[in-house]
Amino acid sequence: MNSAPRSIEEYLRQLRAALAGADPALVQDALYDAEEYLRAELAAHPGKSEGDVLELIATTYGAPEEVAAAYRDNEAKVNAALRQPVPRAAQSRGAIRRFFSIYSDARAYTSLFYMLLTLATGIAYFVFVVTGLSLSAGFAVLIIGLPFFIVFIGIARVLALGEGRLLEAISGERMPRRPVHPGPKANFFKRIVEMLSDVRTWTTLAYLVVMLPLGIVYFTIAVAGIALGGGLIAAPFATVAHHLGWMTQQDVSIHPAWLALPVTLPLLVGLGLLVLTALMYLARAIGRFQVGLARTLLVKPGT
Amino acid sequence: MTDTLSRKFQKDLNGGLVALVLLGVLADSTQDLYGYEIAKRLQKANEGEALFKEGTVYPVLRALSAHGLLTSRIVPSYAGPPRRYYRITEEGRAVLADWSEIWRQTRNFVDRFSSGVRS
User: Fold this and answer.
1) Burial label, B67 (beta-carbon count in 10 A; 0-12, 13-18, 19+)
2) How close, in Å, is residue A157 to chain B by CA atoms?
């Protein structure tokens, strides 16, 4: 049992300690909520000192341990209620139905969309980080060097938060909903030293840089998979249409020629379906991997 | 002993009731409210003595929001961190109507058995 906190900073520190081990995103929520309440309560009693107001807090808002318990209870309930149900087809016994159940999993589609998007976001992140770092190094000798670097890191953190929100939208995994809580008030230079010595600052930049190669790979896999699968499925229909004289403008040719035999044409459709289904599984796996990577580099370090 | 038991009983009761009360407060309000305002309204309604710790209001607000019963927006504030304002959704109003009905039935039922203690 801690001694009763006498200041807002102390209260927040005890609350953070009481929530140790909980989801970092949940800790952020709890700290922001508590700070909102405590500062509003302090402003509502202008005549009283911070210590006096904090004394009342235990009876109104609740002690840090009580508040931490309330958050833990709620998170457990909400998680249980919001977990995406496993598609029913995935539980059925038929091997073929189970294999194709991926098509009823929303996360596979959102992950595939994410893969197509990462080329654009990857290029943007990479250019941002490389430009920001080079300019910061160049400006370092000038008076604007430090402010420029601080703004650069600030924007990088906002990008990281946005990436987290995007990943939560595609995967349903809980990611932080607000920027990292700045912790107790400190003077300007202490803040800068903290920012520079914070592992997360550097892992965030690493994440943004590595998104370029990853984005290229993801985008290539997605486009190649969709084009190959779609092409294989469409080929027999195009051939038939050509033979029937419906498509006179384009010439349809399949190489080697034995693939275009009436016996092998249906096999192409099967192969195309196989490629598309494999792509869907791969997309879902990549989505999961990406969430793990984001947790490791953007959320966990330094908490 | 009775005091500890009473407190535990109150806490168990609060589990779902806090959510019902919060939906009610937001349904009655013509404007969006933030956590502190809601907590203070509850405190005032019970003559300054809240039935539950105001700290428990916030996680429930977030849970209701996650279920789509409330929407929220963040507004920067001069005094401290940005505030999260909540508003009830149509789905929230429908749930509130259901829950109020359940609560009324429960209360009538419980009253029928516990009223004998009053003497």
Assistant:
1) middle
2) 17
Chain A contact present for B85, CB below 8 A: no
Q: Do B43 and A36 touch (CB under 8 A)?
A: no
The string of pLDDT tens digits covering residues A238-277 is 877 777 777 666 666 666 666 667 777 788 888 899 999 9
> Is this complex's ipTM strictly greater than 0.90?
no
**Start-to-end C-alpha separation, chain A:** 22
**Residues of A with CB below 8 A from B39's CB?**
37, 60-61
Would you state the structure tokens that stand for residue A285, as one six-digit string? 């796996």
Q: Cα separation of B39 and B42, whole Å?
A: 5
Instruction: Show which of residues 37-66 on chain A sit within 8 Å of chain B, judged by CB atoms.
Output: 37-41, 43, 60-62, 66
- For A35, name the nearest residue in chain B, comparing CA atoms only: B81
A34 touches chain B (CB under 8 A): yes
Determine the residue type at A300.
K
3-state secondary structure of A178: coil
| A109-136 residue pLDDT tens | 889 999 999 999 999 999 999 999 999 8
Buried b (16+ CB within 10 A) or exposed e, A201-235: bebbbebbbbbbebbeebbebbeebeeebeebbeb
**Against a cut of 0.80, is the pTM above it?**
no
B-chain residues near A71 (CB < 8 A): 59
